[in-house]
DNA sequence: GATGCTCATGAGAATCATTCTCGCACAGGG
DNA sequence: CCCTGTGCGAGAATGATTCTCATGAGCATC
């Protein structure tokens, strides 16, 4: 079927490695700048392409926030995020009840093929202290 | 303090009236086009300004979806959305448990000033039939 | 190790939503 | 009716993301 032959290149490894070092969501532009500083010269367009591929493969999660998208290395199991709106630090959290709730509510209204997204924003202890 | 002296103009009324006629999320561009068709000539920039004002006043909810923001007339009480990803039809739903859950999880991780967003996407009965 | 077929890359242009600029119009209080 | 300041409109500006296309590099094969 739609086999996706994904080639392993220096640039993609660099993007993934960089994401592993981050502990919060980062925008594509940020990641690009960070790669430059690191010495890994990667084109901006390539960073976008690599991120899209990683999202498709489920290795990275996206967060669309006013105008720009932020990316983060994530575990492949279903989960939600607790994000610091100041520093971007993120904690993965699970909430089994909400899964059932979403399915039930959707069914009640005749919706099928259900998907949901839940994000919690706040100020982490470190940022609140400042 | 920060009093917001909001003037009532033909354009703002038109935007709000149009939103009342829609039963799903619509992008700013869509709303602008619809106003034109209707005969209400309103500048694109004005549509954006009116929408921002309405969001600030809590009369309208925003949904950021790949690239463009969508707006919808909403009740002022806290709620979540069940959105048809095909036709955009939307149902407002409430889930008290998730409110408590969000607060508890945030507290456990030392996060303060908590806020959360939860949206459920699916295909409504009408669209699934097609 | 060389060869070839593709897909990936990179620089800059192109696209698209959104915001800004600024001169003019109008809402609303006096 | 007049004044003042806010809102409007058209087009330019901004900024993120995507596209184009010629060149470079995986990876399988010989």
TrEMBL record, chains A, B:
Binding site for Fe cation: 78, 99, 116
Cofactor annotation: Zn(2+); Mn(2+); Fe(2+)
GO annotations of cellular component type: cytosol
InterPro entries: FUR, Fur_C, WH-like_DNA-bd_sf, WH_DNA-bd_sf
SUPFAM superfamilies: Winged helix' DNA-binding domain (SSF46785)
Classification via Pfam families: FUR (PF01475)
Binding-site residues, Zn(2+): 84, 87, 124, 127
Predominant localisation class: cytoplasm
Gene Ontology biological process terms from the UniProt entry: negative regulation of DNA-templated transcription; regulation of secondary metabolite biosynthetic process
Compartment(s) where it occurs, according to its Swiss-Prot or TrEMBL record: Cytoplasm
GO terms, molecular function: DNA-binding transcription factor activity; transcription cis-regulatory region binding; zinc ion binding
Keywords: Cytoplasm, DNA-binding, Iron, Metal-binding, Repressor, Transcription, Transcription regulation, Zinc
Cofactor note (record): Binds 1 zinc ion per subunit. Binds 1 Mn(2+) or Fe(2+) ion per subunit.
Family: Belongs to the Fur family.
Subunit structure: Homodimer.
Name of the protein in its database record: Fur family transcriptional regulator, ferric uptake regulator
Biological source species: Geodermatophilus obscurus
């Amino acid at each position: 079927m739609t086999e996706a032959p994904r080639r392993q290149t220096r640039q993609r490894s660099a993007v993934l490695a960089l994401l592993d070092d981050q502990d919060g969501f980062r925008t594509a532009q940020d990641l690009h700048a960070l790669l430059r500083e690191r010495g890994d010269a990667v084109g901006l367009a390539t960073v976008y392409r690599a991120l899209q591929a990683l999202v498709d493969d489920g290795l990275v999660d996206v967060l669309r926030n006013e105008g720009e998208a932020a990316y983060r290395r994530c575990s492949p199991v279903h989960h939600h995020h607790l994000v610091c709106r100041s520093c971007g630090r993120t904690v993965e959290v699970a909430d089994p009840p909400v899964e059932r709730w979403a399915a039930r509510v959707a069914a009640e209204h005749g919706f099928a093929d259900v998907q949901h997204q839940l994000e919690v924003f706040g100020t982490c202890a470190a940022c609140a202290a400042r």
